Fold:
Amino acid sequence: MRRLRATRRAAIATALAAACLPAAPASADVFDGRIAFTSFRVDPPAGVQRSGDIFSMTLGGTDLTRLTSNPEPDRQADWSPGGTAIAYSIRKPGSPINYEVARMTAAGTGLRRLTTTADPQASSQPSWFPNSKGLLFRRSGPGLTSSIWQMGTAGQMPKLRYQPPNPPLYPSFSPDMKKIVFTAVTSTEGDTDRGIFTVNADGSGLTTVFDVPGSYDSAPAWSPNGRRIAFESNANIDGANPEGDLEIWTMAADGSGVRQLTRNALHDEGPAWSPDRGRKIVYTSGPDNLNGDINVMTASGRQLGVLQPHEGRDESPDWQAIPAPKTARRCGSVSSRDVRDVRARGIGMICLRARSIARRWAKAGRPTRISRFKVRTKDFGGTTRVVMTRRATLGRQLVTFLDESG
Structure:
């Protein structure tokens, strides 16, 4: 992959906002939580044009929950690192085309508009800082060169972060907050040719990591460890995509090790990694841009299933990370009890026992104490994190899991 000349990089870097960012926290244990996405499945009232709403569901495709119900479109959901909030784009009040950025809780409450952009400009495509202290977003509109902006989590202190030479889309920080990845429109007219770029947090080192001339390379997403980037592209490399439709790909963060994961005649777009070790990828797949379902596959491309299929369009999935206490053993799930991803810690707390305790807790009606374990629960928008602890002779024992009983 090619790099821009040093002189051009230096000129571009001068547009970077000077603010220094605190380092992102070290990676921590997390559960794979709910999947948020935009759906056009709701029939609008008579005379109202169909528009998208934000929904969420479990990894198994259960407990489908509508989070927004505005007559105007809501889209591009992005989970906060702690799994308690969602940033997304809302239709700009009074505008038929432009957007603003808003946020809400994981349950769809506490709506708060974060940007107020001068007409006829727009703010959209928010992504949280990995350290939870701010958001990146795209600012665009007629008479304005599209650029990457940042703001606080309540919308405070919005300012220019970076001005690339080509119009940017979908900016996001790497997990260590050392780089920003984004798509840029490289076609001189229209939006037919895109490439994927990274830039250092200080604005130096603008690098083209994937750009096949004439192809639509877009929607980059960092893996949880920051080593790989998933994206969509209709490139036909070595004849592996003869249909020339969008497929899901991954590559190393420097653009090497490119892999095409999907190989079909469908429209595959918008990948997002599972937050727990990045072992899965969720994305949209369908016959065309107006029809698609949320799909899940392994990070190597093995299909695992379709979630909540219907005739219409589901798109832009994002995967919730639910913080998990540090554990030593991963024990799987408890069948038929909506108890998923049981984990354990402590001497004597083997997986057989951990699963048994979790099963008994669910069967007993989810009490606050069971078998001398103190039970603490926290709701993350319909999925509950359960942490059970007790003092034993040889130290503290812990059992933790997700409860998806709704």
Remarks:
- The chain has two domains: 6-323, 329-403.
- The longest strand covers residues 30-39.
